[in-house]
What does this fold into?
Amino acid sequence: MSEPRLRGRDRELAFLRAALDSVRGGRGACVVVEGAAGAGKSRLLAELEKTARHLGFDVVSMHADEPDQYGAGAALQTALRSPDAPGRTPVLSDDQRLQLLDSVTDTLEDRAQRAPVIVLADDVQWADPATLFALRTLPGRLAAAPILWVLAVRPESKRPVAARMREDLDRLGARRLTLGPLSQRELQHVVADVLGATLSPDLAGLLRTVAGNPFQAIELARAFTDTGAVEVQGGVAGLLRHDIPVGLRQNVTARLARLPEDAVRLLQIGSVLGREFDLGTAGRMLGRPVGSLLTGLEAALEAELLLGDGPRLVFRHDLIRQVVYENLPQAARTALHREAAGILRGVCGPPSEVAWHVVMAGGPVGDGADTTLYTAVRELSSTAPDAAADLAQRIAGLLPPHDPGRVTLLTEAAEYLGRTRRVREALDLVDSTLSDRLDPPQEASLRLAAAEIHQAAGDDAAAMTHLRQALDLPALPSDLRVLLLKTKATGYIYLGDVAAAEETDTGLVEAAYRSGDPALIVSAELFRSQTSFYRGHTVRALGLAEQAAERAGAERAALHLRPPRIPALWLGTVATSTDRLADTERILGKGQREAEAMGLGWSLPYWHLCRACALFEQGALDDAAVEAESGLTVADELEITRANPQARALLTLVEIRRGDLTRARDHLRAAEGASGTERQPYDPWVSLARASLAYEEGQETESAVLLADGFGGGAVPRLMAVPPTHWQAIARMALHGGDPALARALSRALRDLSERNEDQRIIKAVRAHVDGLLGAAVGELSDAVSAYRNCGRPLALAAACEDLGVLLAGSADPEAAIPCLEEAAELASASGALRDQERIRRRLRQLGVRVGAAPRHVAGPVGWEQLTESERKLVPLVAEGLTNRAVAERLYVSVHTVNTHMKHIFAKLGINTRVELTRLALERGGIAGEAG
It folds into this structure.
């Protein structure tokens, strides 16, 4: 019997057709279709698919099933894959979330270049966590591409990851389309289509029992025809008898009673396996060869309870499967799920399906199933750590209280939760598990996990408490003790206590070199580099970082370290504070490409942040802001928090220089909100941002107080936490705020740094600059100007020129100040430091020099003139039809940097799509030449 035409959804279809038209215009859209089971979501999507194909859309379609919810793969990624597509080489890593997003993004962008795309996802409430992660993220990331996302979901689903997807899509502006009950009139049309006749009043009255559900109305009509309960006379269908079951459950049960036993047993087993199931697995559960099932299969297909068009059998509707399943006694369902888990494990079936059956059976876990379940958890963790944590906790709840595997699972669950925004939940889980009676290695492992979670969240003091308690435990395995000591030493570095970090070493470095293990040697070299750096021995730190990066390049396994201890990333950080600043782009570009190729996507926020710091030093404020924003975007997608305070603090400093104090305040509030209350490695950054904003708002005394909190005593480790361009600014704000002691302490620290790094020009330049400020000395400021000219740090040079100009303006020859101030203004303008430029121009006007007002940095649509040089380079490439990935490869930058540039371009031009950008570029003409 063919499906009747879609009835009663004209409004919904019109809405979706309008969305198709909008997407054909180049702008992406997302629609979440909600409705109870049987409301017609699948039929609506099928109708929409036909319309989309007719309009030339490229269709991507997927349908989720209940056992999928613990799947480690991404069904969306599979749906996008074509046999002849080149695709990327799979990468095994501990966190593949960004790799997944980038892979799906690249594929969809490429396909959207050729035709508008529609992504249809049905029964999303059961989708695997990786697909849900992609569906809640990509509609926003790909908003400028002609892609329509239509996701069908049951609103009653209580699954947390599905609810999270809906919440995130709401924030992105997704439209909700609710399929409510059909009217009695429309239901009568639906049933009339099935019966081929209009309905008599008594037959129409029965439709009130289905509560407006079209699927149940269709099933009722099928029951009428199957049992011969209706008769058509004169085009009107009337009831012959009144003993027809009208409820869906009674209806399906009655249909089962008319089937042969073989068909009923097959349907019962299939209902346990899922809406889609494999005939071979069903045969194993029935203890029969597949050939003996064919008679029952034919009967189930004939009754249209199953469909067999694909490689697996499928219930025609999940409601049918649900009725068959719920008609089984609870004890039978439990036993069948347990048996299914065993059979699937025996044939090496997907660990995720085994896990789902074990959870549905409610345990117990045994007979080797624990290994398969641990595999399911760990596979899931690479793409959906939060879902892996939930699964680990559910499995742990099935284990006996004193089973050692239970603590292992709970420890891993805490680690996975720590990778997400559910940090508080992770720490609560640690506390509740610690309340059990654990043996020392179990407790130490759990406390190590807690320490790493605290460190990732920026609460290093709490991390150190767990590490100290763990190290006090007796009889710890040596490898676990080494891990605890290494983490503790790193924690001391984060806290700026280098001496304590060196004391914690206790032979770890020597042991690492003796081991011959490349990863351990790289780790030891990085530790030595970090302690040398924060001691102020920058040249030694640079050499050790280069050794580590070179060794890691030869031994890829050594790359699996956490930021900031990835070798090339740390090398870029050190180079930014030395005379090797010009090398940072090469170091970071190469290192980031290797990290991405290794699947270390979780490290990307730190690469972007490091590039942002280097670009700030190089006077490229606009590009520094783009890198910092890109890092925040990726961190938000991956739920990484640690880099956020520093990125926000850097953006505060950028906006101060660009002259937008309102946005600077917004970034500072975000930095303070993300940094918590305990002392952290980025406290100097947040302190510097607070002080700088207070200074620009005229609160000079408050500024000095805030600086004392972050840089009190002028200790070298604190100073080294920020790059050199900021050092002279700290001294200036301290002097103007009435704290000359801090400025003198900085001078002493710079003298020590100069003695430890005699060949570093930047340190000598800043030392001369600070001493010139302290002594109001023209000679030393002139020396600073000369020294800065060879350092490639235009903002520091501009500051020295301005300080020298201010000093000369008050001398006997004030005109000598003019060239200094004019150079400072030019440098500030070239860097995008518009607030600095305006301040310097005011000084020039006071000296009688006629200068115009500096341009203002404004947000919102402003036109082509406000596009930065980097943004102008993108426009002709987009007009050529290149995807963001292709643009990134052409320009040797990250695709996330390109994404951020594109957002800025759209905002400045007041447009929303690549189509509009291409049209504007072609209308202007010559833009390619401007891009050079």
